[in-house]
Amino acid sequence: MRATYRVLAGLIAIGVVVQAMAIAVGWFIALKDMDDGLVIDKNWEGNWGHSLHGIVGSMIIPLLALLLLIVSFFAHVQGGVKWALYVFGLVVLQIAFAFAAFALPVVGALHGANALALLAVAGIAARRAAGAPAPAATTESTEATA
Question: How far apart are CA 11 and CA 6, in angstroms?
């Protein structure tokens, strides 16, 4: 389970990098297309970069974050549940920022900054899982001596 925790956290971090790459290529394609005469209006649906960004960000990363949170209860990673909760919370916040940015575009800056926080926290969670296992919970019974 520790390996699963580490892989899931690592995949989330990689997913954030894929997100940055997808949105960058999406907008560079759009800029090139506009130079070639494309008109972007309310009916424009984006290109494959925008689609990839949307799919990874709204489906894949949230699913990985939920799986990480579930696995964290069984993985025996020191602080694993706490770090999985941080990751999950940042993913929820990321989605909220994305939707809010459509109404108030300046919130997109928070969406970008939060992505960097998610990358860092997922990386920390993955590294913690590579360390020594957390000590198992033990109950010490005290015996009265006669």
Answer: 9
